[in-house]
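Exercise 3.2. Students should predict the tertiary structure of the chain below and write it as structure tokens, then compare their answer with the key that follows.

Predict this chain's 3D structure.
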Amino acid sequence: MKLSKELFCVYSVTDNNPTLESIKNAIEGGVKIIQLRMKNADEKGFLDMAQKVKKICENKALFIINDNVEIAKLVDADGVHLGQEDIDIKDARKMLKDKIIGISAHNKEEAIKAEKAGADYLGCGAMFATDTKKNVTALSVSGLKEICDSVKIPVVAIGRSEEHTSELQS
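Answer key:
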């Protein structure tokens, strides 16, 4: 699927315990893509929340499921975002056909491999240390630039902490 880079200007990834109100507020604030990330939820809880978020996003924002291709298919989400350790992109594509598939990439090699495999966009980082992922080495700005220069698909910089908000807004 061909996606415009402008669409990825404001991309929101929920925390592990999102509220419907926070998702509505994000969309009202200009978010164009919502990624539902619920690492600690059981399948039923994740599916229930995904169905609710799908309704909120309809005709307002693209709806991406984190890691779980089955739930993405069940709720007819716009796509899925996969990490390096998740299901292979080719298997995900068989299940999701023309849906959006994003891949996490931490370096130029992973980025090129993901694009060649058919990724529609890349999530790169983390740009800053984050509480949501332990033992993650921050990606440098030059590393992010190298990734961006090596692929033609959109790239989203991921990983923000409250103490870096002012840096991101400058």
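Discussion points: The chain has a mean pLDDT of 88. The longest helix spans residues 43-57.
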